[in-house]
């Protein structure tokens, strides 16, 4: 009589045994006691829900650090299925993804404390961390953290760490650290002062511009000034009587210059009051009042010598009373 049964005594194994170096080949094998024999083998990795492979053997030709973990197989026939116990695949590799961080982050003030920390991914874990500063050949310190208690300008520079384990070593990326000394603070304060002074000057310039009178070149202002000047009339002119050397039977002449302006280029009549000197013993004398008219611009020109007849001069005769 032949006994039939579901799979049992499921065993998973890995070859070669021992440590697995990154880049090497690994084969996983599943065995089972079943009657009828197992029809299907399926391979799984813990923490992963989907199957990794199918078949009694599962081979990884180039194993990587991500392949480390626990594996198991599942055996199945028409009477049932059963999982094997887990087998651990341990992949060894040297340090990688090595990096440096600084605390506190941001600007480093002179005299403060700074701590550098090195981190790396390695299997087995990193045995030793070594700290270096560029331009300095000898190591600065050892250990995963490197602290500088009284940071000065001489400590500024580029730092990096080296992570080492039995499988290899790797340097981190370079971290630049610059101390913010007194000179930096002075530069910042000077810059702020300059900005404030510029803003003050701009404000005063704006206020002066708002309060300054309008330019006389404005056509409206020019028209207003012209009309205002054209309305001026000069009157009540007192003339000095200049006696001619021949006072006998000759007429005396008085010349008075009166500037006038023409509104809208039109002439205006001028009535001037001339005060006469005390009566003289001469006969009837003549007094001439000379009136000059300015052009429309309103500018006053000096009186020219009366050598020739000027068409812009009005002569008025004033008779003096007889003594």
From TrEMBL:
Residues of the signal peptide: none
A GO biological-process term: cell-cell adhesion
A Pfam family it matches: Ig_3
GO cellular component: membrane
Keywords: Membrane, Transmembrane, Transmembrane helix
Domain of life the protein comes from: Eukaryota
Region annotation (Disordered) ranges: 297-323
InterPro entries from the UniProt entry: Ig-like_dom (IPR007110), Ig-like_dom_sf (IPR036179), Ig-like_fold (IPR013783), Ig_sub (IPR003599), Ig_sub2 (IPR003598), VCAM-1 (IPR003989)
Annotated TM spans: 190-209
Domain Ig-like: 7-88, 95-177
UniProt cross-references to PROSITE patterns, sorted A to Z: IG_LIKE (PS50835)
PANTHER family (alphabetical): B-CELL RECEPTOR CD22-RELATED, VASCULAR CELL ADHESION MOLECULE 1
Name this polypeptide is given: Ig-like domain-containing protein
Species in which this protein is naturally found: Esox lucius
Gene transcribed to yield this protein: WIPI1
């Amino acid at each position: 009589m032949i006994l039939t049964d579901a799979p049992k005594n499921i065993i998973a194994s890995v070859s070669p045994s021992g440590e697995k170096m990154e880049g090497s080949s690994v084969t996983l094998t599943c065995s089972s006691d079943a009657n009828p024999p197992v029809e299907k083998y399926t391979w799984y990795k813990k923490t992963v829900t989907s199957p990794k492979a199918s078949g009694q053997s599962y081979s990884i030709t180039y194993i990587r650090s991500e392949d480390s973990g626990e594996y198991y197989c599942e055996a199945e026939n028409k009477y049932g299925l059963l999982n094997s116990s887990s087998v651990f695949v341990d992949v060894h590799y040297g340090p990688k993804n090595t990096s440096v961080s600084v605390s506190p982050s941001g600007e480093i003030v002179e005299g403060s404390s700074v701590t550098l920390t090195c981190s790396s991914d390695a299997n087995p874990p990193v045995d030793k961390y070594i700290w270096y500063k560029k331009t300095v050949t000898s190591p600065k310190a050892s250990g995963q953290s490197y602290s500088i208690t009284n940071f000065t300008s001489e400590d500024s520079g580029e730092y990096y760490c080296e992570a080492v384990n039995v499988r290899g070593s790797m340097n981190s990326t370079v971290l630049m650290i610059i101390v913010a000394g007194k000179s930096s603070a002075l530069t910042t304060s000077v810059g702020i002062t300059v900005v404030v002074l510029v803003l003050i000057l701009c404000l005063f310039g704006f206020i002066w511009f708002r309060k300054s009178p309008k330019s006389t070149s404005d056509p409206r202002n020019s028209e207003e000034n012209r009309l205002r000047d054209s309305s001026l009339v000069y009157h009540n002119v007192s003339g000095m009587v200049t006696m001619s050397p021949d006072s006998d039977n000759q007429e005396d002449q008085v010349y008075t210059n009166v500037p006038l302006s023409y509104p809208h280029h039109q002439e205006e009549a001028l009535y001037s009051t001339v005060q006469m000197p005390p009566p003289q013993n001469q006969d009837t004398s003549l007094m001439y009042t000379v009136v000059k008219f300015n052009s429309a611009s309103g500018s006053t020109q000096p009186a020219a010598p009366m050598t020739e007849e000027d068409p812009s001069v009005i002569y008025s005769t004033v008779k003096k009373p007889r003594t």
